[in-house]
Amino acid sequence: MRCWYRFRIAFSALAATLLALLATCPSQAQVDNSGLEHRYREPRPDPLSLSPQQTLSLSLYSFSYFRNYEYFNEFADGLTYFGTQLKPELVFRPGKHVSLHGGVFLAKDFGASGFREVQPLLSVRYQKNGIGFITGAIDPHLSHRYIEPLLDYDKSITDPVEYGTQLKFDRPVHRTDIWLNWKHMIYKPSSEQEEILAGVNTSLHVLRKKEFELSIPIQVIGWHSGGQIDTTALSAKTLLNLATGIEFAWNRNGAVEKIFTKNYLLGFGNSEGDGPYEEGTGLYLNAGVETRWLDVLFSYWRGHRFVAPAGAPVFQSVSSHVDHPGLTRDNRSLLFLRLKKDFTLDDALFVSARLEPFWDFQGRYADYSVSLFVVYQGFFDLFRFSR
């Protein structure tokens, strides 16, 4: 309890510091990955039918990626992801607001034989008046829209399917995603612990005008391992990450389409206190500009004993590097430059190219990554049935 009390005090103090900084300091923005998200389309209405209809449709989502990390630091590995994913799904709508989804997920790494992953995709979805409920295969990783220190974007490649329950709100005053990903199920007796990842991501819309947008994000994500039917000597453990801040965007006409800033204060707590750190904090200041030719973003990270089990390794104070596992550094200070160009080649085809160098102030070195993403999304109406 003592460590949690200190964690709350540190988080409150740092929140006050961030508010002061926001009044005097320019900041930069979080990478927009919305074009990579999987979206389902409503079936087109039949203008000749006057009665309610049931529909069967085919959804196709393809995600191809080249993600090359030219990293030589001690905290994040230098590696390359190069491959493609395919998600064909049949979508049956027995009514206007309910849909049943059944399909398969296929992941292929280039340069390796066979498939890296094959999984069934099963879910039931309800959608009405900006409220959505999903059970089964939920909208994963990028769709949660967390900042990168809390949820690594590469999970769209390394952990692409999430099974659990999700409640989503897209309302005039807020956008909220409440989700639970049951990562590892155990059965009696088990030599392993169950593992759960869950969170809440809310964006409170303070101002939503055509020209200006102002919102307050609140992001919570927790990782838990434990269970009551395992035979291990390990105790249950929970790690919690929090983030809040201010997001502002100025939408413009002309060559410069948007100027925006997103700034976050982060916290970390360990329920057991058995790791290198019991608690930690982070400051994530971002700002950027979207233009007709190129999107340019800057991100500054300042972490103090910060750990996020699902976050990107480069932001952590505890190393996951293959040659330096467990290496700690209390303070991390990083400055990122993110150059991004998105292309919509067709209504169904989206391409994003990125160059992201960064500077480590403590280590006094520079590393960079290069990425190319290609997303195809197709939705085809197959059959209609009159009720």
Question: What does this protein look like?
Answer:
This protein has two helices and 16 strands. The protein has helices at 2-24, 155-158, and strands at residues 53-70, 80-93, 98-109, 117-128, 131-137, 163-170, 174-184, 194-208, 212-226, 237-251, 256-270, 279-291, 295-304, 331-346, 349-360, 365-386. Strands 1-2-3-4-5-6-7-8-9-10-11-12-13-14-15-16 form a 16-stranded antiparallel beta barrel. A hairpin with an 8-residue loop joins β11 (256-270) and β12. The chain starts with a helix and ends with a strand.
Fill in the keyword field for this structure.
mainly beta, 7% helix, 387 residues, 2 helices, disordered N terminus
Task: Please tell me what the overall shape is.
Answer: globular
The secondary-structure element order is HEEEEEHEEEEEEEEEEE
Poorly predicted regions are 1-29
Most strands sheet: 16 strands, antiparallel, barrel
> What structural class should be given to the helix and strand makeup?
mainly beta
Helix content: under 10%
Biggest sheet, strands in spatial order? 1-2-3-4-5-6-7-8-9-10-11-12-13-14-15-16
**Mean pLDDT over the residues:** 89
Give the oligomeric state of the chains in this entry, treating copies of one chain as homo and distinct chains as hetero.
Answer: single chain
Report the C-alpha radius of gyration, rounded. Answer: 22 Å
* Number of self-contained structural domains: 1
Q: Give the helix tally.
A: 2
The span between the termini is: 58 Å
Please report which band the strand proportion falls in: under 5%, 5-15%, 15-25%, 25-35%, 35-45% or over 45%. Answer: over 45%
Instruction: State the total count of DSSP E strands.
Output: 16
